[in-house]
């Protein structure tokens, strides 16, 4: 039993290493060890195993690691017909071309949201949205949409989270959730990042369950509250069409 626990722990640690690359393309041994809070010797052994299987590659010149070809093999084997990030990409591109700003797709994972797809704006000054980024549910237009349309039990768990930031008033947040349900969309102005704004709408499946949040984001001096109200209609329409595309 002890050997089984040790084996499972090694798997978890190896997966933690792979997850370090969701926001950064290359990382050194010390950087990885600091991110997952493990000794460098342990991380080095795990990296050697991952490298042997092709899941990571080490650059001999920089001594940094990056994801290997096996990751892409696994990704290529995913069912495109069931992956919303792929199914909805053409509709996201159409919305980007219509509103001229970056378009992102988010799903909720526990007490965080994850950007699973993004189409960058073509403008010189734009909001860059890296796929795979994780963000808290307490702030941001997409976060509020994902919480506003979640079931009551999920909402209670999120709002009673002991790690809820002191800077976000729960009562006001709950009021915002009600407004979002009435309007059908959410906005945010420099809530998570200075100089950034976003408008978001829910994507529902055929059973009426929220599966993702569609968001348009950009510089706050260009994406003003007036502008966000103006494009809220196209965003909600795009989200409605996307919902019809999901099985």
Overall description:
The structure is a single chain. With 247 residues, the protein is of the alpha+beta class. The protein has two domains: 2-74, Arc Repressor Mutant, subunit A, CATH 1.10.10; 80-245, Beta-Lactamase (2-Layer Sandwich), CATH 3.30.450.40. The chain is 46% helix and 19% strand. It contains ten helices and eight strands. The strands form two sheets. It has a six-stranded antiparallel beta sheet, sandwiched between helices. A two-stranded antiparallel ribbon has the order 1-2. Helix 1 (2-19) packs across helix 3 (40-52), helix 6 packs antiparallel against helix 10 and helix 7 (141-148) packs across helix 9 (170-183). The radius of gyration is 20 Å and the shape is globular.
CATH architecture of the largest domain: 2-Layer Sandwich
Distance between the termini: 42 Å
Number of domain modules: 2
Specify the biggest β-sheet. 6 strands, antiparallel
Gyration radius over CA: 20 Å
Topology:
Layout: H1 2-19, H2 29-36, H3 40-52, E1 56-58, E2 65-67, H4 69-76, H5 84-87, H6 89-99, E3 102-109, E4 112-119, E5 134-136, H7 141-148, H8 152-159, H9 170-183, E6 186-189, E7 196-204, E8 210-219, H10 225-245
Antiparallel strand pairs: 1-2, 3-4, 3-8, 4-5, 6-7, 7-8
């Amino acid at each position: 039993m002890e050997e089984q626990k040790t084996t499972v722990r090694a798997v978890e640690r190896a997966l933690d290493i792979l997850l370090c690359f969701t926001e950064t393309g290359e990382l050194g041994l010390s950087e990885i060890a600091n991110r997952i809070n493990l000794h460098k010797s342990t991380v080095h052994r795990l990296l050697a195993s991952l490298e042997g299987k092709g899941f990571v590659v080490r650059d001999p010149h920089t001594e940094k690691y990056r994801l290997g070809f096996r990751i892409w093999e696994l990704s290529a084997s995913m069912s495109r017909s069931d992956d919303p990030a792929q199914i909805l990409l053409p509709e996201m591109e159409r919305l980007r071309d219509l509103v001229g700003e970056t378009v992102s797709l988010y799903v909720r994972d526990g007490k965080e949201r994850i950007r699973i797809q993004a189409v960058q704006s073509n403008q010189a000054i734009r909001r860059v949205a890296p796929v795979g980024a994780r963000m808290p549910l307490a702030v941001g237009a997409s976060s509020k949409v994902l919480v506003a349309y979640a079931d009551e039990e999920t909402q209670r768990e999120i709002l009673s989270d002991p790690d809820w930031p002191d800077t976000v008033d729960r009562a006001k947040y709950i009021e915002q959730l009600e407004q979002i349900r009435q309007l059908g969309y959410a906005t945010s102005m420099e809530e998570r990042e200075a100089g950034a704004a976003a408008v978001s709408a829910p994507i529902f499946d055929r059973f009426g369950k929220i599966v993702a949040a569609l968001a348009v984001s950009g510089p706050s001096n260009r994406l003003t509250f007036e502008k966000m109200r103006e494009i809220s209609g196209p965003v909600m329409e795009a989200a409605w069409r996307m919902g019809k595309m999901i099985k």
